[in-house]
Amino acid sequence: MIKVEGESGSAHCMVEVFSDARFRAMELITILNRCHRFQGFIYQHARFTPDKKTIEISVRPRKGSAAICSRCHQPAPGYDQLAERRFEFIPLWGFFVFLLYAMRRVDCRRCAAVIVEEVPWGDGKRTLTKAYMLFLARWARRLSWKETAEAFRTSWDKVFDAVEDVVTWGLEHRALGQSMPLASMKSNTPRATNT
Ligand SMILES: [Zn+2]
User: Fold this and answer.
1) How far apart are CA 92 and CA 161, in angstroms?
2) How many other C-beta atoms are found inside a 10 Å radius of the C-beta of residue 192?
3) For residue 126, how far is its CA from the centre of ligand 1 (angstroms)?
4) pTM
5) Rounded to the nearest whole angstrom, what is the distance from the C-alpha of residue 173 to the centroid of ligand 1?
6) Reported confidence tier of residue 25, pLDDT bands at 50, 70, 90
7) What is the separation of C-alpha 133 from the centre of its chain, rounded to a whole number of angstroms?
8) CB-count exposure of residue 3 (10 Å: 0-12, 13-18, 19+)
């Protein structure tokens, strides 16, 4: 059984899926629309990679929805589109899951520059989605980072990145002291000792 948690407390959503459930692409998209619906974007379709180890879900902008400038966070006219990127999502039924999306660039007059758009599921630098980083960071409070990496068949570095990102987000948004004391998580698990 796999539990999938939503990326924030307010959008909390948990789905339980049994491993013998028959996978159908539309069912997965239905689940994602319940747990991780992103304004301005739609899940287009889901498919297995040829090796059957990974599910890829293509994402595209909703028709007529303007891209958001990642610098000033305001809508801006489109400029062009970059090559498709893969953003790693929470694994499901033992399969790796990736969102595929070609980031748009905007010609932002406020910033007087061509800037990559902001997308709600990740940032421009990391390959993991926010949802997967939060998922790993939560498990990294219960297990060592090495055990977390092994349990979800990912690397220690990705777990480290996830914890770092979530801690940084928590500090920036002053979310400490709520349900997830991230600062203590980080200080209790320094890179040198949590192996
Ligand atoms: Zn801007």
Assistant:
1) 21
2) 6
3) 20
4) 0.74
5) 21
6) low
7) 6
8) exposed
